Amino acid sequence: MKYRTSASAAVLTALALALTACGGESGNAGDQPAGESTGANAPKLPTYAVATGVKIDSPTLKKAQQAGKLVIGAKNDQPFLGFEDTTGKRSGFDIEIARMVAADLGFKPDQIEFKTVDSNVRETTISKGEVDLYVGTYTINDERKKQVGFAGPYFKAGADLLIRKDEKGITGPDSLKGKTVCSIKGSTPLQEIKKPKYGAKTVELSKYSECVQQLLNNEVDAVTTDDAILKGYAAQRPTKLKVVGKPFTQEPYGVGMNKDDKALRDAVNDALEKHEKNGDYKKAYEATLGLSGSPYAEPPAVNRY
Amino acid sequence: MNVLLDHLADFREGFIGTVLLTLASGLVAMMLGVIIAGFRVSPVPPLRMFGTAWVTLFRNTPLTLLFLIAWFVVPVIFVPGLSPWMKALLALSFYTSAFVCEAVRSGINTVPLGQAEAARSLGMTFSQTLRLIVLPQATRTVIAPLSSIFIALTKNSAIAGAFSVTELFGVQKLLSDKGFPITWIFLWVALAYLVITFSISGLFRLLERRLGVAR
Q1: H helices, E strands: number in chain B
Q2: pLDDT, tens only, B117-130
Q3: A9 in reach of chain B (CB within 8 A)
Q4: Chain B residues touching residue A186 (CB < 8 angstroms)
Q5: pLDDT at B3
Q6: Measured between alpha carbons, how far is B157 from B89 in angstroms, rounded to an integer?
Q7: What pLDDT was estimated at residue B213?
Q8: Which member of A18, A124, A185 has the closest CB to residue B72?
Q9: Are A253 and A124 in contact (CB under 8 A)?
């Protein structure tokens, strides 16, 4: 009996510890990011000139203009990409893309309403019109094109592996035989790793932070998802974790919107091209994703279908 | 309709996964629950205290938290390297055992004290009294609440889907992530759950009729 109570006390204490340990979900928890995110010489976020008198024959946009605000769906838990801190301030590369597109559509930063939308309800939320645009690591694929329209791609990501710093055995997807790989339920990279040719065991959880915790506990050997997301986590714990750096899938990110609103799609494509040309895109990258140490790459050409 | 026919294999795997997990954790919870109920009505104070602590702990902890303990605490302190399925079985059966225990205990309380006293006066031990006299009579009362508990267990097993176990809820998440029409997926998954829960309530209705005795 005595032993029992102490055992359960130990469990609760350990749980408390485990829970506080995986509280490192904020952009700069734990050790300092590798990039110069602080100090005077840190890259500054660009400001975007807001267009006036925008007239586009788009039902979505007309509705938003009448309401005086543009509703944009985003992620809130991806450091450097789409992140919301405890005060409700949003930051990250996807958020900047949303802001530059909104500016070209005639909306000031205070006229944008960001809404956090979970991955598995993105299509429903967009087609129901609950958000006007969606910017959040949204990979363009044919199945999704049946339900939503995509502008872009504005960024080329690819699945990669996050491993412990002292891991010698994993050099890429082909060295995963007998290893355990963790990812989010239903993620594209996991579908790839599950193929028999890799011979890896898989674990599927509901949050990347849970996977990272399992990696730190030595319960799994690697975490896989888009490299952009992994670099954010590696930047949080540069002394313990690293990214392999051998992408093995193509994940072109697009801006999601109503499937039949071609006028809006063209306008967003124009906006993306304009900001890629005038240097805003590069500045936005340097001040967000670039901080995690991943070098800048030229954006892919937009695809007007 | 198409989404079901195109992914019949996924749905079947998910369905089997849910059924197996429910069955296994139901069995373990049943055994644990009856043992703990025995503890709670036993004449030995430490056993009674242990039973009370068990029920208090597992009945008042949210199931998701138990899953997190099984994933992030059990490997570090007790047994490393359990499979996701075993972790789910642990969390689900411990959680459900507390409810089973309380249902069984309330059933035991409906058996008139005279029965136990008569058994004692015939010279039966405590465990004989429980096994031969009290539990058989308590069973009838317990059947209805148990059926609710197992139906709840079926639905609770969906949490395992978020923790790396192949089951119905996970299939829903997988397919809707890929971008198939979410309404249809939900409909089919809900129907599959209904098939399981209806089977459980049918089974227990049958039991109730078989074991029903006029008092």
Answers
A1: 11, 0
A2: 999 999 999 999 99
A3: no
A4: 170, 173-178
A5: 78
A6: 9
A7: 62
A8: A18
A9: no
List the one residue out of A286, A233, A184, A242 whose CA is nearest residue A26: A233
Contacts of B5 (CB under 8 A, 6+ apart): none
**CB-CB under 8 Å, A19 with B68:** yes
Residues B39, A4 contacting (CB under 8 angstroms): no
User: d(Cα A185, Cα A205) in Å, to the nearest integer?
Assistant: 6
A218-252 pLDDT, tens digit each: 999 999 999 888 988 887 787 888 889 889 988 89
* Residue indicated by tokens 């639905």: B155
- At residue B114, does pLDDT exceed 80? yes
CB A120 to CB B71 under 8 A?
A: no
Confidence of residue B179 (pLDDT cuts 50, 70, 90): confident
Q: At B101, list the tokens.
A: 């225990």
Looking at the partner chain, which of A18, A124, A147 has a beta carbon nearest the beta carbon of B73? Answer: A18
Using a CB-CB cut-off of 8 Å, the residues of chain B touching A187 are 177
Quote the tokens at residue A114: 């960001």
**pTM of the predicted protein model:** 0.70
* Cβ pair A14:B84 closer than 8 A: no
**Termini Cα distance of chain A:** 70
Query: How many other C-beta atoms are found inside a 10 Å radius of the C-beta of residue B159?
Result: 21
- pLDDT, one tens digit per residue, over A180-215 is 999 987 677 888 898 899 999 999 998 888 999 999
Interface of A with B in 169-208 (CB under 8 A): 185-187, 202-206
* A121 has a chain B CB within 8 A of its CB: yes
